[in-house]
Write a structure and sequence with these properties.
The complex is a heterotrimer of chains A (380), B (459) and C (252).
Chain A: H1 6-24, H2 29-32, H3 34-48, E1 53-66, E2 78-81, E3 86-90, E4 98-104, E5 111-118, E6 129-136, E7 143-148, E8 159-174, H4 176-209, H5 212-215, H6 219-236, H7 240-251, H8 255-279, H9 283-291, H10 296-334, H11 337-347, H12 351-378
Antiparallel strand pairs in A: 1-8, 2-3, 3-4, 4-7, 5-6, 5-8
Chain B: H1 2-16, H2 20-24, H3 28-48, H4 51-73, H5 80-97, H6 104-107, H7 109-120, E1 125-126, E2 129-140, E3 149-151, E4 156-159, E5 169-175, E6 182-188, E7 194-196, E8 198-199, E9 202-203, E10 205-207, E11 214-219, E12 236-247, E13 252-253, H8 255-288, H9 291-294, H10 298-315, H11 319-330, H12 334-358, H13 362-370, H14 375-408, H15 417-426, H16 430-458
Antiparallel strand pairs in B: 1-13, 2-12, 3-4, 4-5, 5-11, 6-7, 6-10, 6-12, 8-9
Chain C: E1 3-11, E2 17-26, E3 31-35, H1 42-49, E4 57-62, E5 65-66, H2 72-79, E6 82-85, H3 97-102, H4 111-115, H5 121-133, H6 149-162, E7 167-171, H7 179-195, E8 199-203, H8 207-213, E9 216-221, E10 224-229, H9 236-243
Parallel strand pairs in C: 3-8, 3-9, 6-7, 7-8
Antiparallel strand pairs in C: 1-2, 1-4, 4-5, 9-10
Helix pairs in contact in C: 5-6, 6-7
Classes of the chains: A alpha+beta (380), B alpha+beta (459), C alpha/beta (252).
Chain lengths: 380, 459, 252
Amino acid sequence: MKGPWRIPIILGIIIVYALCWRAVGIAPSKFFEPQAAQRAREIFTAFVTPEILIPEVSRQAVEVPFRVPCPPGAKSTPEVSGLSPQIVMPVCASEGEIIKVEGRGFHPKSDVILRWRFAPSSQLPLGGELVAARVKANEDGSFEAQIEVRPLLAQEGGASLQAEAQWRTGRRVVSPALVKTAELMVQTIFLALMATTFATVIAIPISFLAARNIMAKGPVGTAIYYAVRWVLDLVRSIEPIVVAAIFATWVGFGPFAGVLALTVATIVSLGKLFSEVIETIDPGPVEAITATGANLLQVIRYAVVPQIVLPFLAFIIYHWDINIRISTVVGFVGGGGIGYQLKLWIDQTDYHKAGTAVWAIVAVVSVMDYVSARLREAIK
Amino acid sequence: MDRKRNASAVKALISLIPGLAYFLEGHQTLSLIWFFVTLAILGLALWRGHTWLWICLALWWVGSSYDVLMRYYRNTSRLWPAVLAALVAFYGVGWEVTEIDLLAPFQRFDKMKPYLVALLQPDLILHPEEREVFQVPIEMPCVKEPQPKTIGHKETITVSSGCAWTGDTLKVEGETLRPGFKVELWWVNPIGERQRILKGGTPLTLQTDEHGRFTAEFTVPKAIPVGFEPKPGEYQVHTLQVHLVRRVGMIRPSDALIEVALKMGETIAIALLATTLAVIVAAPLSFLGARNIMGGSIPTRAIYYLMRLFFNVVRSVEPMIFGIVFVVWVGLGSFAGMLALVAHSIAALGKLFSEVVEHIDPGPVEAISATGANRLQVIRYAVIPQIVPDFASFTLYRWDINVRMSTIIGFVGGGGIGFRLSEWIRLSAYRQVATAVIGIALVIIALDYLSSQIRRRIV
Amino acid sequence: MPLIVEHLTKIYPDGTRALNDVSFRVEDGEFVAIVGLSGAGKSTLLRCINRLVEPTSGRIIWNDIDITAASPQELRRIRRQIGMIFQQFNLVKRSTVLTNVLSGRLGYLNPWLTLLGYFPPAEKKRAMEALERVGLADLAYKRADELSGGQQQRVGIARALMQEPRLLLADEPVASLDPVLAHSILRYIEELNKEGGVTVICSLHFLDLVHRYATKVIGLKDGFKVFEGRPEEIDDRRFKEIYGQEAERIGG
């Protein structure tokens, strides 16, 4: 940058950056707004302490059938139900009555939830359950509670009262979030594997059409060559995420949409790379094998395939690696893989679980990165 | 004799453990692959619990033993039975867990067709129109004797019957309307769902003659709202709308086109700022992650390993994942999207840059140091001239990637064209989606071309 | 059964006239050297004989069969009886030596089985014998690119041996090798010619090699045949006709 253009160019750059600054709406103060800072702290503390092991919770429950109102002849007097643990309560009552529920033999100091449960036939909201009371058992494992008989209980199928005790055993177990993450990570890896495989099968014939040394021998071939190249460039400019979002409406929300989107992206990319490999093969062996009287298929099998198979394999492994990265996020729009679950957890502010997913992604992507580099080195 | 038998027994034993033979022959990588494949098939069988997976595991095991025995006794390798078993296991599970349904693309092709049609006719231009609407109430079904119905005083619309039922044919006539206008017929049901009246599958379009007259016959479309069917003896009131349409003024770009252009600008701004900020941060950090600079003492080496770890961990997290985090932190919008790209780019560029710094020629450093220059002078005159071309080329490469990424970062709320595009996809606004997709393709192809030209100049 | 070349002309699509009305006759068992400057048309002439290059006009008759008029199927049948070795060896570098040698036999074998990579054991034995003849039996399972240039050319000869050729075309077989190795390669070819009775047509650069091995010489210049005769007939005048006025004769 010299001469009279120096100042206008610098001014131009400043103006471009100023415009961009405004368009993007950069506001560093947003980092430190009390709410934002609070959320950031939550996210980061959660991410460094992902949910891996959680305290084990044991449960025990007793369930007693209950009728509202009392059938003729029955009386609203306390009866003992269950052996150990057991609860003492009337087995019927009329609407609005307050009944006394006593429990014995429960786990000491456990949290007890008393909930009404309805027969599955009745069309009720709340999943057929209604929490009546929460109490804590005392040291000898007994409790006492007063609960109201709600009008809702006057159901045809009848209802029952369940007393469930929960307590921590002091042991720690693998968290369900970790199990879910592991399952979805495996799904993610397979999503990439299937997409890479499908794409390879389709990209191989396409790559021959996009190879100059094969196609550019006559006007028709040259036209096909340019057309294929053009389509590859066009499709390559659309990110797989966009394709996945569109495919999700086509084949439905789920991993298959992700497989298809990644397949499209990989076909395009592999098609181009493969065709470059084909363009750089050594024509000598082709000539030599042709000279032995071999037919066209034999020439391809013995002179072309040995030259391209290892470079192709290296590119396939490389793309499997790339596809694993992409399939961790393809779920944001198309469903499937770890991405969808991760977004769900963040939307539900379950940041500890989201942290589990993120660390799993980091681990798997890094390992695959390393493995793919090693494999590509090994097959050189 | 005994020794021979012992040797055979040892060989048989070796063949029973997948990968052991390779390990003993010194092929560590192959034996590791064997070990992990065995473990993977076992894991899959435990996870999915299918009988055929256990069979595959057995075949894999028998196949690898067979290969080992063939190599010991026949001096040839027979890998295909084992490889086939492993492939069946992996692809079988892959097929299952990714829920592949090859029929779905065909069975649900009707869902995709509008996109394909729209790609051929994206929403690019808008022709402003003048539109006059006449409304004729129609009772459905007929509970009284059908009677012709006329509305208006000077300009009149007459329908052959004021009541009808789905599938009936009605005749509609207009008198002394404005001449030379296009006429469209629309049907509106009681809950406000509007549909264009078709004839032979295409929209029915007419023209008023020089006296402002038109005549049309049409079939009453299916318009009774599901779940609101009229009870016997009752009717509901639908509306026949007669639209008189004329194009006025100049054509102009459609709203979608303007929106795409504006948002593409924002998208490029995100990419430009993200790349710039990432370079500003990554360039100094890369020196901390370069072995030849930091390898001197134990504390600096610790910093080197920490930087390496940081680069590798952050690099493996896709920008979109950073996107959802930053959206929670600083709110929806381009700022969050830009930060996500910055975070990923710092790590990716930092790693590439530090490799450049590691590969500089130590000769000039020595030479400039020998002249008595201080450390900063050495960096300025011996290091920077060596690294600038590579830094520039990696920056351009990152810029290419960031332009692509910024088109999708909006899918998680990070602003730019992606945000609008994801909305349009959700709303099934096919023609707007097509406009955006074509816009993205054009801009990316143009910028790719531009950066390849720049790269040719500087490298 | 001689090889008869009549009025052979080759014009490439870009207008280059590589061969102009070349005619000659080669009797069975001869060792013919084709000499001339680079670009004189030596490679084109050799490649026209097995139609790796399609002649523009003229005829090539071998065993009373018109090669230039052969159908693709006939052509493959003819080609499998004509061995060829190349300046750049043209081995498949990523395949094993054995596979490279076996591929010389492709024209004789069931195409479908060979596509699956299957070769009958008898053919493998024959390939090992061919490798033994060129002294490379212990390298059979190495990848071709692990071999030195001289070894690669010997693999090329073994590949040609697999064809049990009655005619061997050699396109500058020693031009990419050390002079020391040149004799060892040419001695294998001479052995084939003398003991196996294989007709050899070989393009060569160095006149001393021509004098040592050839029984007949054909000189080409700018696509025209400028000499045909015995090696010892090449005197200074003829040498300048073939190689141009500025050329200096050195050696042989």
